[in-house]
Amino acid sequence: MRLYGLIAAIYLAMTMSPAAQAGEARSRLAEGHWVEIAVDSTGVHQLSYDELRQFGFNRPEKVNVYGYSQATSLADGPGAAVPDDIPQQLTLHAAGKLYFYGETASRVTLLADSTVTRVISPYSVESHYFLSDIDGADDMASRLYGVSSPEGDEVSGHTSLIYIEPEVINPYGYGTGWYDRSVTNDSTAVYPVYLEGFDRSWSPWLTVRTIAINAGTPQLSVSISNTMTTRTIAKSVVPVVTVTAMRAPRTMPARTSVSVSTTGKTGFVSPDWLSIIYPRENVLAGRPQMTMLYNTATAGHPVRVDNCTEVWDVTNPDKVRRMSVDGGVFAFDADMEQSWRRFVVFAPTHHDMLSPRVVGETGNQNLHAMDVPEMLVVAAHDLVDESRRFVSLHSDLDVAVVDADEVWREFGSGVKS
What we know:
Elements: E1 6-10, H1 18-21, E2 34-39, E3 43-48, H2 49-54, E4 64-67, H3 72-75, E5 88-89, E6 92-94, E7 97-102, E8 106-112, E9 115-120, E10 127-132, E11 157-164, E12 188-194, E13 205-213, E14 219-224, E15 227-232, E16 240-247, E17 255-263, E18 268-281, E19 289-295, E20 303-304, E21 310-313, E22 321-322, E23 329-330, E24 340-346, E25 357-362, E26 375-379, H4 384-394, E27 399-403, H5 404-412
Parallel strand pairs: 26-27
Antiparallel strand pairs: 1-26, 2-10, 2-25, 3-7, 4-5, 4-10, 6-7, 8-9, 11-18, 12-17, 13-16, 13-18, 14-15, 14-17, 19-24, 20-23, 21-22, 21-24
């Protein structure tokens, strides 16, 4: 049996808000029927009304999605604020199905024409969300966003991002330091890529991040479609990170490959991740969904997307906005806080979307409103009863024993971290 042990002696008064200490706070999980689900792919997900009925919901049309992505707690670095409790997410009901946007435990963000950044959770590859038909939910799908009278030339293309991050070797033996196989001893790593919908209006950007450990001074080579760039990795006793960016020819084939290799005396050199940023046409065609990136220069212009009926602004995956679409055309306003905006387009009645994994039913709980004890003990689920017996025998203090699973659900959207 896997033993997690007890997380001992945490003073609740140090972390509880004044409202909670006064007994005024309340978790959404305190009442109603709840089902926990998990997503391992980023994009629009769906559940049919038949599935919702199987989960115990007699009013499937009233079900909404709650929770947030695990990448949220990491996006702004350690100590960043995370949602208190489980916030409601945009939920669309159409043709006997429920639709919502779910993000995995990693997030890749475009910062500039050739620069990306990513955060990844070391705790899980999934994000967890919750389903409930509780009354009083906000009708978020009825609010439409966008510019009502767009002006300027119609936009028929967008920026697309391909991101590849193999995780094969962990030379440190802990944490998120996972990389692909080493390309030392004159070996080559080859990554097939498909630039779907490549419209060739500008030359793509290729960026490769590598890690070198005790590698001497090897020559690193990165190539795509007969275009190559080389760099010398400086000798160092500490790991050396090298980011190589290059322009690929706009005449390159849509189906191609990226090669990463080294020459010279080397220790350990491995690709960490690679990205390709390229221009793509706004054609949904037979695809279930498509992600589009725009910088603020496009704000206010009409953007046309063939074969789509839904456009969602997912720049902030925890505050998704449904855009107003008329005949496949939408327009967004400028947001100076975001240099790049991310949208997902889809046609819910024409294609099946991604499917979440069902974790199971969740009982009611309300840690927000608990009285502040003199000592708090957080125990693994299988040890809660034994912990209460132990506390009753060995402590004269006012002690509360809390199930760790309840803490993760109410304050971490269900993921054990």
